[in-house]
Amino acid sequence: MMAHGHMIPTFDMAKLFFSSTIAAVKSTIITTPLNALAFLSFIRSSQIDLQILEFPSAAVGLLEGVENLDHCTSDEMHITFIMDTTLLQEPLQRLLGELRLDCLIADMFFSWATCAASRFGIPRLVFNGTSFFEICAWESMRMYKPFKDVESDSEPFVLPNFPHEIKLLRT
Predict the structure, then answer these.
(1) Which contiguous run of DSSP H or E holds residue 126?
(2) Alpha helices in the chain (DSSP H)
(3) How far apart are CA 26 and CA 20, in angstroms?
(4) CA triple 83-89-92, angle to 5 deg
(5) How far is CA 167 from the centre of its chain?
(6) 3-state secondary structure (DSSP) of residue 67
(7) Cα–Cα distance measured from residue 25 to residue 109, given in angstroms and rounded to the nearest whole number
(8) Is 12 noted as a catalytic residue in this protein?
(9) Which residues pair with 124 in a beta bridge?
(10) d(Cα 88, Cα 51) in Å, to the nearest integer?
(11) What integer is the mean pLDDT of 47-68?
């Protein structure tokens, strides 16, 4: 996703691949012009490649320069932005046709990247920024609804089926 909470771990993965001692791994970050600014200082001092895809902000009714969820100022803008990231599929496919990638790691919100990669026989790994703890906590809350047994928002409840006692509040 084009938001700092997803871009930073993606950047960290590129650095890990680049610094790999197991094999000579080339990292390429594919992003939009404004998002590229977050990577420039590191990329200048490394051999990580940077490829730019233009994001059609104005063409989809967003303000010029809205290339990141952090720039969206309303729920409507968020929805428009997320839905319109699919417009990057075709430019990504063209770029993948030019590059010789061994693997594409794309955010979980870019499900269309799977189709783009498969056209060229490129395996795709999905980046899911959600932690395993969060997934387990969410599932425990969904299944057991421990928050229903408390009388107020400020009363703690325990998440069931965790190896340690985890207390949360409804608020």
Answers:
(1) strand 124-127
(2) 4-18, 33-36, 40-44, 75-84, 89-98, 112-118, 132-144
(3) 9
(4) 140
(5) 29
(6) coil
(7) 25
(8) no
(9) 104
(10) 13
(11) 82
pLDDT of residue 65: 80
Structure tokens at 27: 């990292």
- 75 flagged as catalytic: no
Amino acid at 170: R
Check whether 66 has a pLDDT greater than 60.
yes
Quick count: other Cβ atoms within 10 Å of Cβ 103? 11
Token representation of residue 167: 């207390």
57 in Cβ contact with 65 (< 8 Å): yes
Lookup: tokens for 117 = 């990669």
Q: Which two tokens stand for residue 67?
A: 């290339």
At 24 the pLDDT is 65
pTM across the whole model: 0.75
Catalytic residue among 4, 84, 107, 164: 107
Higher pLDDT, 80 or 52: 52
> What is the band of 115 on the pLDDT scale with cuts at 50, 70, 90?
very high
Q: Which residue has the tokens 């794309």?
A: 106
- Joined tokens for residue 106: 């794309």
For 122-148, the pLDDT digits (tens) are 999 988 888 889 889 999 999 999 999
Length of the chain as a residue count: 171
CA 69, 73, 79, 80 torsion-angle sign: negative
